[in-house]
Amino acid sequence: MAAPKLQAQIDINAPVDKVWSLVSDLSKMPQWSPQCRYMKALGGVRPGARTINFNRRGLLFWPTTSRITEFVPQKKLAFRVNENNTVWSYELEPTEAGTRLIETRHAENGTSAMSNFLVGKFMGGVPSFEDELVEGMNASLTRIKNAAEGNAS
């Protein structure tokens, strides 16, 4: 069963190339994401590259790996998390004032049984965890907006 698509977006008063430089530097992900503590693309950010990630929520700390599935400069960056089959993406659209940035978490074939078990057992259940993920997406986008517009976060 497919999990719901989680999505957030924000309009940024900065050009697409500036926003892209922030989003496509995966080593900066911990600056944006409330959950991500480390993300490194092995061999650089490119289609098919693998990443090593460390996440934290309160006292819980867990590693994941992912693979970059889409890399279209100044348009879209997406990666699939191997442990739970979710695809996270950042899409950039030019606007009159700058850039619209859209973050999406998609699980077309649902998340893995192990992921659902762990979220249910340790993270308060899937619905509340997904609400928390959307809150985190909005926080991430606000932090990227602040950096792109030159505001302190």
UniProtKB/TrEMBL annotation:
Species, as recorded: Mycolicibacterium duvalii
Pfam family, one: Polyketide_cyc2
UniProt cross-references to SUPFAM superfamilies, sorted A to Z: Bet v1-like
Name under which the protein is recorded: Polyketide cyclase
